[in-house]
Hints:
Structural class: alpha/beta
CATH architecture of the domain at 3-86: 2-Layer Sandwich
Helix content: 40-55%
CATH topology of the domain at 3-86: Gyrase A, domain 2
Shape: globular
Largest sheet: 4 strands, antiparallel
Number of helices: 20
Distance between the termini: 31 Å
Oligomer: single chain
Amino acid sequence: MKLKSQINDVIKNAFVKAGIEHEPMSVTEATKPEFGDYQFNGAMALAKRLGKNPRQIAEMIMENLDFSGIVVKAQIAGPGFLNLWINPLWIAQQVQSALHDERLGVSKRENPIKVVVDYSGPNMAKQMHVGHLRSTIIGDTLANLLTFLGDEVIRQNHIGDWGTQFGMLIAYLEETDEDGSGSLKDLEQFYKDAKERFDADEAFADKAREYVVKIQSGDEHCLKLWQKFIDISLRHCEDVYDKLCVKLTRDDVKAESFYNKDLPEVIEELLEKNMLTKSDGAQCIFLEGEEIPVIVQKGDGGYLYATTDLAALRYRANVLEAKRIAYVVDARQGGHFKQVFKVAKESGFVPEDVKLEHIAFGTMMDKNGKPFKTRDGGTVKLIDLLDEAVVKAKGAIKDKEGYSKEEVEALAKIIGIGAVKYADLAINRESNYIFNWDKMLSFDGNTSLYMQYAYARIQSIFRKFNGEIKGDIVIGDALEHRLSVMLLRFEDMLESAADNATPNQITAYLYDLATLFMRFYEHNPILKEGVDEKTKMSRLQLADLTAKTIKQGLDILGIEVVDRL
């Protein structure tokens, strides 16, 4: 339910009745219970234009408010704020409706669009490392969220599979993979060994260079080896995706090589539009207000990242017909994307009505505030980090006696992977954050484990009750009122998180919801002796919708729940 829109409609109708012409304005959620459920503060913005003081305008609105439906009470505060309370009977009806809706009252968008989400982007010459974690998690969450809201989401994994190093790698693969098993268990070591061989053996280096030319010219043997190396590399990535419970598949891969045939066309079109200037032999685009040009072709005819990105944008906007293209990439690439997006629009590769976004994120730091590294200073492999998360999660399971060994293993995976993902998503994505095992595996604070515990606690209520839930929801006190309104705000929050690509809005909402439920449960007993049947049934239904909302929110984040903890 778009609760905020419905409250806005009440305000708009009051404006119409009062004969006030106004710009579109929006109510905001009240910051304290004594201020009501929502506040309207647009009176101050209108005061100067209408030649009245804000309080007069607030009075005019209040006199024309409809108190027979959603809004039951209003109060003028301060210089012209209007505090609004929602009718408890109306709230109860909407909560009941949401509870019996498989989408919990969240509607699908009336005008869905095609959205491309570009994320993860591993390098085929190396195993995935912690530097790929944030792109993968944030990107997958955004794709899940937009899909849930009804957009047609096209996941794109733009992998680096083209370039001079691949001649070296496939030449080395040809020599070392005699039995054709292609395991390459340690891609990092494979790359180092190949580079060492390349630097030490001139004959091998010549062969590697020849292979580059042969790959680019379509030589069947070299392409077969190249494809084998890519397949082996992708299998390593898929192991990580499986552990992380992200939805990227082989079908989502759109590698650099996919756009290779389009690169000459990109240059040709830019030339036709008189956008290129030769500088030191290279083809460049000089953008207004930018000191550094965008280089799209080197003097030797080679192409650059910008050329491939322009080809990808051209393909996504015109072939895939996406209306929103989001790149979930490290914040340090901000300058690059700013320029590429500008070129894409000025060249006409991307229509003006297509939204281009760089979904930037900060760096994962260790407890000393330095980039996350191994003890010897190397890059932490992502698969090792995730395995460690599962091991540490076992220590967070308080009562192992109630589980079999297999159940502990399964539970540890859900808790450990969930902890890593939630810790990342719970912060402003543009911020750097400190990776802290103790904090992310804590039952206290805004953590995945706290959310999983809240869900499990509600499930324990239903195990104890073990009966049929019937009757109507009745809003009996302030805590029930606040919890119900919070549940009805779910769709508004998801829409805002989707529009702004801010997963931390989801985690903040879930934390506030779980915390509020814990207070509700503490002060409003459900199964305690003496609670009348009508109240018990109403509170059970509120608990049920809370659990379902937590589960749906975590599902969008790619995190599982557990029934017992």
